[in-house]
Design brief:
With 97 residues, the protein is mainly alpha-helical. The chain has a domain at 20-47 and 55-93. Helices cover 53% and strands 0% of the residues. It has helices at residues 18-21, 27-34, 37-45, 59-72, 76-85, 87-92. It starts with 17 loop residues before the first helix and ends in a 5-residue tail after the last helix. The relative contact order is 0.23. Residues 21-95 form the Transposase InsH N-terminal domain. This is Transposase, IS5 family. Pfam families: DUF772. InterPro entries: Transposase_InsH_N.
C-alpha cells in the first residue's frame, strides 16, 4: 500500500524554507490549506501497491496537478511545465524533495 503523502517543504539553494518566501495571502496557498488532502490519500491509496511497477508519486502531487489543470484550463504538458517553474504550484501540490 502507498504510504500517505507527507507535508514537507523544499529548501532552496541557500537552505531557506521556500514556503517562507511565498506570499501567504496567495489564493493557491490559501486553497491548499482547506483541501482535505488526507481524504484523497485514503481514497486513492487502495489502488497502489509497493510490489508492482515503479515507485509511485505522492497522491497529493497527482490530485494537485489535476486541480490546477482544471482551475487554469491547462493541458497536461502546460500544467507540468508550470509546476516545474512556479513555486506556488509546487507549494500547492506538496513540494517533493
Amino acid at each position: 500500500m502507498l504510504t500517505p503523502s507527507k507535508t514537507f517543504h523544499q529548501l532552496n539553494l541557500f537552505e531557506t524554507d521556500l514556503l517562507l518566501q511565498l506570499d501567504p495571502s496567495d489564493p493557491l496557498l490559501k486553497l491548499s490549506t482547506v483541501i482535505p488532502w488526507h481524504e484523497f490519500d485514503e481514497a486513492f491509496s487502495i489502488h497502489y501497491t509497493e510490489d508492482t511497477g515503479a515507485p509511485s508519486k505522492p497522491i497529493r502531487l497527482m490530485v494537485g496537478l489535476l486541480i490546477l489543470k482544471q482551475l487554469e484550463n491547462l493541458s497536461d504538458e502546460a500544467v507540468v511545465l508550470q509546476w516545474k517553474r512556479n513555486p506556488y504550484y509546487q507549494a500547492f501540490c506538496g513540494m517533493p524533495k
